Every structure is written in C-alpha cells, then in structure tokens.
UniProtKB/TrEMBL annotation:
GO CC annotations on file: integrator complex
Gene3D superfamilies: Leucine-rich Repeat Variant
Name of the protein described by the UniProt record: Integrator complex subunit 4
Biological classification of the source: Eukaryota, Metazoa, Ecdysozoa, Arthropoda, Hexapoda
SUPFAM superfamilies: ARM repeat
Organism of derivation: Bemisia tabaci
Keyword Nucleus set for record: yes
INTS4 8 helical bundle domain boundaries: 607-803
Length: 940
C-alpha cells in the first residue's frame, strides 16, 4: 500500500505542465557616476577651516601640487584665494597665496587684467616687505603674459616706481626688475622713457650694493629691449668697476662692454692727460684690468667679454700678451721729451751735457697701482690663473680674436701651445680645438711641434683625436717638421692601436696640404734605394699603411712624385684603392685604366639598377614577376657588397623584395589563418612572421635619405605586415589580440593622416583598408580580422622603390673586442667585468635607440644603454658615430668557458612595444666572447 501511494505521489509531482510565458524585457539601468570634484578646488574651500598658519601653509602646498582646474573654476578659485588673502594676517601665508594666484593665472585661460587689478588693489595697503616683493614678482610675470597692453604696463611701472623708495632692498630690486621688463618703449613720449632711465641710473649710487647691482642689471635689460645707452654714461659706469662688491663690478663690466661694442669709434679723453682714445680701446683696457680682479666670477666674465671685442686696435690687442708695464719704477718718456726737459732746466754741470748731475724725477712706489695695468699681459694672467674657468675663458677669447687677426694669431700661438701641458683635460681640449679653428692663420715650427707631439702620449682619447684633427688642419714650416709629425704619429700608433683610423685621416689631410715637403721625404719614407732592392713592406702593417696614405695623397697634388714609386708601391696602391677608397685618392698611373674605371663606377651600377627594376615592372604575369624578384634579390645583395656608392639603395631594394616574397609565401599557403596546423607548421609560420616583422621594422628605421614617397611606400608595407600579423594572432593562436588591434588601428589612423597631409595617393591595398575599416561598427579583434583576411588574400608583390644614391643603410663595424676562443676572459663569479667596446656606427637615424645586447649561454639577454657621452660624432660625416664604451658582463660559476654574444642593436620597443622581442634589430654580427667565471676563493 505504501509503495502504491509513493508511486502516485511521485507521478503527481513529476507531471510537467508547459505554458508559454513571454520572456521579461531586460531593463538597462543607467548608473550616473558621481562627479569627482577637483582636488585643488576642494583644498581651496578648506582654507577657512585652518586654525593655524602652519596648517594653511601645508594646505597651500597641496594646492600648488595639484593645479587642475576646469575653465569655469579658475576665476572663482582665484577670487577665493584673494578673499583668504585679505583675511590672513600671517605674511608668509600671504606670500604663498600670491605665488599660487600667479601660477593659476599663468596656466589657465583667464582674464589676466582682472587678476592684475585685484593684485594691485590688494598690495596698496600692504606693509610687509616679503609680501610686496612677491606681489611685484607676480605682477611682473602676469604683465609679461600681456605684451600688447601698453596702458596696463604703464600702470604697473607707475606702481613699481612708488616702491622704489622702500626701505627694503628686495622691494627696490623687484620694482626695478618690473620696470626693466615692462617699461613701454614704443607708443609713449621719449621724455617719459628718459625720465624712467634717469630714475634707474640714480640708484646706481645707492648705499646698498644689491640695489646698485639691480640698477645696472635693469639698464642692461632696457638696452636689450631696444633702449640704446648713450656714451655720456661711460665715465660714471667705469667708476663702478672699482666697486667693493663683485656683483656690482660684474654688471658694470657688462655695461662697459655694451658701450664699447655699440660705439667703437667714439672718442674719449683720458682722465690723467689730454690724449684722446677710441671708446672700444678704453673699454678693452678697462675689461683687461678686470682679469686681475679678486673674484673668480669677475675674471671669468672679463675673459669672455674680451673675446667678442674684435674691433679693438691692434696695439691694444698685442699688449694683452706682453707683461711689460714699467722699468725700474720710472715713468717712460720719449727721447724728445727728455731732451726738452734738459733744455729748459737751465743748469750747468760738467758742460758735456745739459743737467747731467740733476737728480732724476722719482716716483713714490705707494702711488703706483700695479693692478691698473690696462691691457698689459691680460691674457697671460688669464692663462696662468689658478681656476680652470678663467683659463678656459681666456683660451676661448684668444681663439675668437685670433680668427680675425693674422698677426695676433701668430703671436698667441706659443701661449696656446703651452696650454697643451695644462693639468686639466678640459683646458687641454679647448686649447687644441682653438688651434684647430685658427689653423688657417698659423704655421707650426719645430720647437712648437715638440710640445704638440708630446701631448700625443696623453691617456685621454679625446685629447689624442683632437690633436690629430689639429695636425691635419695646420701648416708645417719645414720638411723636418713633417718628419717629426710622421715619427710622432707612428710612435703614438704603437702605443695606442685603437687610434688607427684617426691617424689615417690625419695623415691623409697632412699629405694633401704638404705635397712639396712630402716629395723630399719619399725616398726615406718608402725606403727607396737607388742601387739596392729593399725588402717589400707588409701591406697589412698599420704603420706602413700610414706612410702610404701620406705619400699617395701628396702625389695627387704633385705628379712628379709618381715617377719615384716602385712596382710594389703601385701594387699596394691598387690594393688600398679597393679597400680604402675614402682614404686613398685616384692617381693617374694609366689614363685608359682610369677612364674605364670611372665609367664602370659611375655609370655601370646605376644602369644595372635601372634596367633590373624596369624588367620587374614589365613582367607579363605575377608568376614571372615573382621569379624576377627572386633573381633580383640575389643580384642586389651582391651589388651592395661591390659598390659602396649604391649599397644603401641596393640593400633597400633587396630587403623590400625579400619581404614581398616572404609575404606572398605566407599568404599562398594559407597557414596564417588556420589553427589546425601541426607543431612543425606552427613553428614555420611563427618564424616567417618574425622575419617579416623585423624586415618591416628595418625598412622603416634602418635607412636614411628616404624621401616622402619612398617612406610612404615603406610605411604602407609595414601596415600590410601588421594586418597579416593581427589575422595570424586572431585565427591561428590563442593569444589575446586586444592590444595588437588597438595598435594596428592607431597605425592606420596615423598613416592615413600622414598621407593626407603630404598629399600622397595610397596604394590599392591601403585604400581598401581605409575603406573597409571605416565601415566597421565595432573594433573588436575578431571583427577587424574578418575584415582584413579577404583583403590579404588578394595580395600581389610590388616593385621596389626607385634607386637613389642618397639612401644609406645603418651599419655597425666593431673594432674591438675581436672575440675568439683563444682569449678567454676570467673574472670572479657574481662580480662585474668590464669589456671595452670600440665600434664605428654609420648612418644612424636615431642614436637614442642604440643598445648593447649581451646574450649568455643560458639564453638570458641583457640590454645595456650606452651613455650619450660615449657616442662621439664623426666630423664631416653626418649620422656617423664612434662608440667607445664598456659592456658589463656578470654571471654565476660555469664549469668551462662559454661564449657570450655581444652585439649592437636598435631597441624600438618605445615605438612598437606591442610587437615584443621583434623590436630588437641587429646592426652587426654578434661577437663571441669566451668567458669563464671563477668561484670565490674562501679563506686566506
């Protein structure tokens, strides 16, 4: 019975009744986010709740750190600050409030005239000197933001004049600063301007040195703004050169220089005589006197100002290198003056000479001021100064003056050569660079060359390379000087082999400048004997290459020298001409050979490139075009190795063709849009995509000299590669593609904007991408991939861009280390070992992206950013650098020596970070350094 009831109950409860019920409508609930008030606005409202001035200062500092206002909140915030300013009694808080008002008004679009008027009204009854100083500073900063409002500037200047009689020096100084910056010079009467100028000049006699200095600085500002000083103020300004305070003397020096440069031909009368002198000559003498000043800053400024006074007379200029001022404390008089004094004396003595026993006029030694020596020995004192700032300024001043005066350059040569022995490297470098700039005026003698060549032993590479440049630009007086230079450079090369290229360039220019001197040294340099056959030198010897470069460059300008060359020298010339065409000139040994060589170099390569690309353009079908592209890639690679003149253009075309063929291979196999590939097929597609992405980045970032058309073609190809990569990530992998999709769409927008601005018509594929993506309603990865896939399957290879000799490819040549298993580097495990790196970088478009990459045997990779100072620009070769740095190697203990790969790469992750490790582009083959970290020795 129980079983029957249970079955019946189960049957009743398990009975299902189906009824059609309409699904409820999904209601959208719009949640409005609360408006977050601006932090600065909230803090301003809390100012009135501060109980102490310390709390108010802390709150005002927070407001200054978070200056974020909307446009409609700026003026109410400023009004609140002004209200709080009037309520506050603490002067420090009022100073901060005014400073904050100035910052808010400067960074916002607000009516500055209203803010300035409120500030003026707030300062009218102000008594605190600190607040007045800050208020004037605020008015000056806001007034400079309204340059066209003359009436407002007049009002501010009038307000500043009212505070010139304040008892505080800071208020006076700030008032004069405001007058100097805002005094209108156009649109008002000349009398008003001169009255203001006279008012400022009156403060140059103030008792406070700070006020005197501020007055002089205000006059300088007015002069720079267009108010020309008059020569009548010169004598009063010269009095300030003897002021007790250096800040006053500095400002007066600048004014003396201004008057001397602007009125060089005006004459003045010397105070102790009736002699007239040019204004610039007297100003030059006064500034030369300041070279002996007690203050280092004054001496440095005086030397800097002297270097720009090129209109000074030669007698004053030459006097700066001569210390002779007086002899035995006696006045120097001419012979005519001495005879006239004897004649009018009327005294008799021995009868042989008038007044021969009269005591000579003596001078009290206390009345003589040796400091007032004028221009006598000014530069000598500057070069012998104990502070490097003064010596540096003196060397630069001599260089600037010598570039326009041949005689002064010759006289100052000995002094500058002596500076090669200075104990500070920067001073030596500046002296070397100065002589390089003066090289067209000077001729080195043997005694001077001894000092110059002695500096070649300097440990600093900058000093040695600077000397190479100086020797290359200077003229030598005799053949013995040339022999000394050659011997010194060869000795330097033995001690510092890393200076090889710099020495070669030095000897190249030295030979071109001294062909006649080199002609007399050819037999000794090349070891030519008239009767005996000498052993043939080794052409791989760097010293012999130096001599050949010197002689061959001299032979270019001295054809009789060619008759002295032996057969082995001519053979070595042919070898060097092929390996170093930029160092060895073309000589006319054989006219027919020369003409054929010129023809092959200048016309054959360019004709070959043009014919190659024309054949690709004329291909009848895509299959034939693909075959021609494959053959052209091999030919272009070989051409880039043969002819350096078209190497960049040939390498660009070869890389573009290779990328096109690789792109076509991926598309034709349909491997990029299938997720059912085997592991081997997946790796193949992944490797092909990596190569393709790197090729696209190389095309964009590793070539210089591309015009707008070629650069647009390269960027459009990169867009195709990014589209293919996006479809591959969405269709054939399980990776997230959101970031990549966003990056791709941003690239599309950027390229579309660039093509529109440059008025360049996009190719068919890029135009289709612009068209189809504009129709998309959503930009999810799947939708974008579905849009791009049919477009990619219609891809056809393009022809490479037209050749251009201006195109150069970025490359790196590592000079050291050479690597190899023979030289194992050992260091203690866990510590750091520095490996010196010396590399030549050619045609680098973006030096900021250069990195050193260290790849360890355990596949760890470290990127090292070289210091900017380690990149030395190559002179006369834009875009080329020499990298001299140290690669830091560190690892744990290894069982045996293993190879660490060192290379120079471009890190483009800042631009294309979404692409990951693909952004690292190799610029040279890795150097294998065999490293053996040793364990730490325990115990004693």
């Amino acid at each position: 019975m129980a079983k029957v009831l249970k079955k019946r109950a189960l049957a009743e409860y398990s009975h299902q009744i189906t009824t059609e019920v309409e699904p409820p409508l999904k209601k959208l609930r719009l949640v409005s986010k609360p408006v977050i008030e601006n932090t600065a606005t909230v803090y301003i409202g809390l100012l009135n709740k501060c109980k102490t001035s310390n709390e108010a200062l802390q709150l005002l500092l927070r407001i200054s750190e978070s200056l974020h206002f909307q446009e409609d909140e700026v003026l109410p915030a400023i009004n609140l600050l002004f209200e709080y300013y009037h309520q506050q009694t603490n002067s420090a808080v009022r100073v901060v409030v005014l400073s904050l008002i100035c910052d808010i008004a400067s960074d916002s679009k607000v009516d500055l005239q209203v803010v300035i008027e409120d500030t003026l009204n707030s300062l009218k009854k102000e008594e605190s000197h600190k607040v007045l100083t800050q208020g004037l500073s605020t008015l000056m900063k806001l007034g400079k933001l309204t340059p066209d409002n003359v009436s407002l500037h007049l009002k501010l200047v009038q307000f500043a004049k009212q505070h010139l009689n304040d008892t505080s020096y800071s208020v006076k100084n700030k008032a004069m600063d405001l007058i100097g910056e805002l005094q209108p010079l156009v649109g008002i009467s000349e009398s008003s301007v001169q009255a203001t100028f006279k008012l400022i000049m009156d403060f140059t006699h103030s008792q406070d040195a700070r006020v005197r200095s501020a007055a002089f600085n205000t006059v300088i500002v007015l002069h720079e703004r267009g108010l020309k000083l008059k020569p009548s103020h010169y004598s009063n300004i010269c009095i300030a050169l003897r002021d007790d305070y250096e800040i006053v003397r500095q400002a007066a020096l600048k004014l003396v220089w201004i008057l001397g440069v602007n009125y060089p031909e005006n004459t003045i009368v010397l105070p102790d005589s009736e002699e007239e002198i040019r204004l610039i000559d007297d100003a030059f003498g006064n500034i030369c006197t300041a070279v002996n000043d007690l203050s280092v800053r004054v001496r440095t400024q005086a030397c800097k100002l002297l270097g720009s006074m090129t209109a000074v007379s030669s007698k004053f200029l030459h006097q700066t290198l001569d210390k002779k001022l007086m002899s035995n404390m006696r006045k120097k008089k001419s012979a005519h003056e001495r005879d006239f004094e004897n004649l009018v004396s009327g005294e008799w003595a021995s009868g042989n000479k008038w007044a021969d026993d009269k005591p000579r006029e003596l001078i009290d030694s206390d009345a003589i001021s040796l400091m007032r020596s004028g221009a006598c020995g000014a530069f000598v004192h500057g070069l012998e100064d104990e502070f490097l700032e003064v010596r540096t300024a003196a060397v630069e001043a001599i260089c600037n003056l010598a570039q326009d005066n041949n005689q002064f350059a010759s006289v100052s040569l000995d002094f500058l050569v002596d500076m090669f022995n200075d104990e500070i490297e920067d001073v030596r470098l500046i002296a070397i660079n100065s002589l390089t700039k003066m090289s067209r005026h000077i001729e080195l003698r043997e005694d001077q060359l001894e000092t110059v060549l002695g500096a070649l032993e300097d440990f600093s590479m900058d000093v040695r390379e600077g000397l190479h440049l100086m020797l290359a630009s200077c003229r030598l007086s005799t053949k013995d000087c040339l022999q000394m230079c050659v011997d010194g450079l060869l000795d330097n090369l033995k001690k510092y082999p890393q200076d090889k290229k710099s020495t070669w360039h030095c000897l190249q220019k030295m030979g071109s400048k001294h062909p006649t001197l080199t002609l007399s040294l050819v037999p000794s340099l090349l070891a030519i004997h008239p009767f005996f056959d000498m052993p043939e030198p080794n052409v791989d010897d760097p010293a012999y290459i130096c001599i050949l470069i010197l002689v061959l460059n001299a032979a270019q300008h001295c054809p009789p020298m060619l008759q002295l060359f032996e057969e082995n020298t001519i053979k070595h010339y042919s070898y060097l001409r092929d390996t170093m065409p930029n160092l060895v000139p073309q000589l006319k040994f054989n006219v027919s050979l020369q003409s054929s060589e010129l023809k092959s170099v200048e016309t054959a390569t360019s004709q070959f490139l043009e014919s190659l690309l024309s054949k690709i353009e004329a291909a009848p079908s895509n299959g034939v075009r693909t075959e021609l592209l494959g053959a052209a890639e091999r030919d272009l690679d070989r051409l880039s190795q043969i002819d350096s003149a078209v190497a960049g253009s040939a390498r660009l075309s070869a890389l573009f063709i290779s990328s096109q063929l690789l792109f076509s291979k991926i598309i034709n196999n349909n491997m990029f849009c299938s997720n059912s590939n085997t592991a081997q097929q997946t790796n193949t597609v992944k490797n092909c995509m990596t190569r393709l992405l790197q090729n696209a980045l190389k095309l964009e970032h590793c070539f210089v000299g591309l015009d707008e058309q070629r650069l647009a073609l390269v960027k459009q190809f990169k867009l195709k590669v990014l589209a293919l990569h996006l479809v591959y990530i969405v269709r054939a992998t399980n990776q997230s593609a959101r970031a990549l999709t966003h990056f791709f769409l941003s690239q599309v927008d950027r390229i579309h904007k660039e093509l529109t601005e440059q008025k360049i018509t996009p190719d068919s594929f890029t135009a289709l991408i612009f068209k189809e993506l504009s129709k998309l309603e959503e930009t999810k990865p799947g939708a974008v991939a579905r849009c791009l896939q049919p477009l990619l399957q219609k891809f056809t290879p393009q022809s490479p861009p037209n050749p251009d000799k201006k195109i150069k490819m970025c490359s790196v040549e590592v000079n050291s280390p050479t690597g190899g298993a023979d030289n194992v580097l050992k260091f203690t495990a866990g510590l750091i070992m520095g490996v010196p790196l010396d590399a030549d970088l050619y045609n680098v478009p973006t030096p900021n992206f250069l990195r050193l990459r260290l790849k360890y045997p355990d596949q760890q990779t470290h990127l090292i950013v070289p210091r900017p100072s380690h990149l030395r620009p190559v002179p006369d070769d834009e875009g080329s650098y020499r990298l001299v740095t140290t690669a830091l190697v560190s690892h744990q203990v290894w069982t045996e020596a293993s190879a660490v790969e060192l290379s120079v790469v471009l890190d483009l992750s800042e631009k294309d970070s979404v692409l990951g490790p693909v952004c690292i582009i190799d610029l040279c083959k890795p150097i294998k350094l065999y490293v053996s970290p040793k364990p730490v020795k325990r115990g004693i």
